[in-house]
TrEMBL record:
Residues 302-606 form the Penicillin-binding protein transpeptidase domain. This is Peptidoglycan glycosyltransferase. GO terms for biological process: cell wall organization. Residues 1-24 have a biased composition (Basic and acidic residues). Residues 1-61, 73-121 are annotated as: Disordered. It holds the Pfam family Transpeptidase. GO terms for molecular function: penicillin binding; peptidoglycan L,D-transpeptidase activity; transferase activity. Residues 52-61 have a biased composition (Acidic residues). It comes from the Bacteria. The chain crosses the membrane at residues 155-175. InterPro entries: Beta-lactam/transpept, Beta-lactam/transpept-like, PCN-bd_Tpept. GO terms for cellular component: plasma membrane.
Length: 615
């Protein structure tokens, strides 16, 4: 019998009792310890026939507990002194207060207890107990769990990668549909579009005032012929559809081969095997202004482009030499056989030319941005500037301009003064200024074009730097880019994206299918910069090199230029806008290989401005 260490008693002889010798209703002896009682400590039976001084103990076997009769676990009734069996002598204090015997399974022995478990371990322990796993199986499960935990980071990383790729794919689909799909659909290499012509008669192209610029004629036999009523005047702007597809014929090819007219009528025509009339394209081009610009160029080669500063609408686009779109199929072989023949080239968008003095607008902007006190600029022009040795930059006709401030230098287009300004600019400032206005970059427009180029390194010679500052050197520009710069100045520094198509309508104009709205690229100049450049351009017309544009019922701001081309004569330039107070038109004129210098472009610009402003 296990006793309390504090209450030592003499040892008694103990006799081991077999389970078969147990009586029907045993009585347990409490050892005085709740813990011992709960854990199944030594059990003493009082009413067994024992010899004097004998006691017995019984250590229960938990594996056999399931076979116990439940009645055995109940407390037996007390026996009287007259009972046939002798009572076991129990000393006072050895018998604690009796407690009711629990009817649940006995717990594990104290020695078999497991240390307290954490909240995370309890569920797993319960699973193990329920499954009755062996220690080897438990260790194996732990190893598997550990391996899974080690693999989780890789699985998570792969999940993130696939999620990112999915989002990227969705983003590309959105981008493709919004910005790329139209170019793919309208590509000259997309032969599937031509299959639409089997069921649709190609739609018309009209000007902003409704003048037909291109239409499809159908004879009695159903043969179709594309006809251009205005002929050469719109050859580059409208383009052609049958060969060397270009211009609006190319950009709106898909829409002109769609028929969004009356669906019932279209269905009936399909049943009868007849073609439906394609949708028509309404352009931003002003037919009257286009004709004036075309005639003003006369026999000169060159380009004229005019846009609306506040919206970017292209009002006129002329390029010479030109071609007759009605006979291009027959003339094509002859045209392309001549290397010098560039009549198929739209010079307003794809022609690259030396800008001459109109580039001084960019040099002036860089000088303003340099932080120099341009209001106190002072220079004495002697007709040329010496750059060391035999290298000089001379003014036009070696004119001596004398004392000049910044505005005078721009108004008189003084090469010596602007060569001096170019040399004073910090390294790369002129390049950074030009690139902020899309030199060496694609312009923000859907009109197909080539990039203007600017090439000046920080370690270039003084002569190269000065020549670049006055618009010579290796700089080349398109008329489209220069008119966009002029329009941005007129629009307070906000550059609008040029566009040539106003809307797509059903045949006859009964229903609008698509409407093109003006889009702004954003501020390319601050309002202060635009205002200062505008004042410089006004001075050019007021008392500078473009006084022939003054004296009309509207004020003009502009800049003249002469691009010197070695061995091919000079190119005459003009960029500007009018009226100054509320600009309605911005224009760029280029006259190639002319001996009249900048003066040749002024009559062309004057004719266009007067035609548009109603003078």
């Amino acid at each position: 019998m296990k006793r309390d260490e504090k209450n030592e008693t003499p040892k008694k002889s103990v006799r081991k009792i077999n389970i078969d010798d147990l009586p029907k209703r045993p009585v347990k002896k409490n050892t005085g310890s709740d813990e011992g009682d709960a854990m199944g400590e030594t059990k003493v039976f009082r009413d067994l026939p024992l010899n004097d001084g004998e006691d017995f103990e019984f250590q229960p076997d938990f594996d056999t507990m399931d076979f116990f009769d439940e009645d055995i676990l109940q407390e037996p009734p007390r026996r009287t002194a007259s009972a046939s069996r002798r009572s076991i002598p129990v000393e006072e204090g050895d018998m604690p207060e009796e407690r009711p015997v629990r009817r649940t399974r006995r717990r594990r022995m104290e020695s078999e207890r497991v240390p307290e478990e954490t909240e995370e371990e309890i569920p797993e322990k319960r699973r193990i107990k329920k499954l009755k796993l062996t220690p080897e199986e438990i260790e194996e499960r732990k190893a598997v769990r550990k391996k899974r935990r080690s693999q989780n980071p890789e699985i998570l990383a792969v999940t993130y990668v696939f999620a990112f790729l999915f989002v990227l794919m969705i983003g590309y689909f959105v981008y493709f549909n919004a910005f790329v799909s139209k170019n793919v659909i309208n590509s000259a290499y997309n032969v599937r579009i031509n299959s639409f012509a089997d069921t649709v008669i190609r739609g018309d192209i009209v000007s902003s005032d409704g003048t037909v610029l291109a239409e499809t004629l159908v004879d009695e036999n159903g043969n179709e012929t594309r006809y251009y009523p205005m002929g050469r005047i719109f050859s580059h702007a409208v383009g052609t559809s049958e060969i060397n597809q270009s211009g609006i014929e190319l950009s709106e090819n898909f829409y002109m081969l769609q028929s969004n007219g009356n669906p019932i009528l279209n269905a009936l025509q399909d049943i009868r095997g007849e073609k439906n009339q394609g949708d028509r394209v309404v352009t931003t081009l002003n037919a009257q202004l286009q004709e004036v610009a075309y005639n003003a160029l006369g026999y000169n080669n060159g380009a004229v482009i005019a846009i609306e500063p506040a919206t970017g609408r292209v009002l006129a686009m002329v390029s010479k030499p030109d071609y007759d779109p009605n006979t291009l199929v027959d003339d094509y072989e002859y045209i392309v056989s001549e290397e010098s023949n560039d009549s198929l080239l739209n010079k307003t968008t794809f022609g690259l030319f030396v800008p001459g003095s109109i580039f001084k607008t960019l040099t002036s902007l860089a000088y303003i941005r340099s932080g120099t006190d341009y209001n106190n600029y002072h220079y004495v022009c002697e007709g040329q500037i010496n750059l060391g040795g035999d290298e000089y930059i001379t003014c036009f006709d070696q004119i001596v301009h004398g004392e000049e401030n910044f505005m005078d230098s721009y108004a008189y287009s003084c090469n010596a003064s602007f060569g001096n300004i170019g040399l004073s600019l910090p390294d790369n400032l002129l390049k950074d200024t030009c690139e902020s206005l899309f030199f060496n970059k694609e312009l923000p427009t859907e009109i197909p074009h080539t990039k203007s180029s600017f090439n000046l390194a920080a370690d270039d010679s003084d002569w190269q730097t000065a020549a670049t500052a006055i618009g010579q050197g290796h700089t080349q520009v398109t008329p489209l880019q220069m008119v966009m710069i002029a329009a941005s100045i007129a629009n307070g520094g906000n550059m609008m994206q040029p566009y040539m198509v106003d809307a797509v309508e059903t045949a006859g104009g009964g229903h609008r299918v698509k409407k093109y709205l003006p889009e702004s690229y954003g501020q390319v100049l601050t309002t202060q910069e635009a205002d200062l450049l505008g004042q410089l351009m006004e001075a050019v017309v007021d008392y500078g090199t473009a006084t022939s544009l003054s004296g009309y019922g509207y004020s003009v701001a502009g800049k003249t230029g002469t691009g010197e081309v070695s061995g091919r004569g000079d190119n005459s330039w003009f960029i500007g806008y009018a009226p100054v107070e509320q600009p309605q038109i911005a224009i760029c004129v280029l006259v190639e290989n002319d001996e009249g210098y900048y003066e040749s472009a002024l009559p062309v610009a004057n004719a266009v401005l007067q035609a548009y402003l109603g003078q």
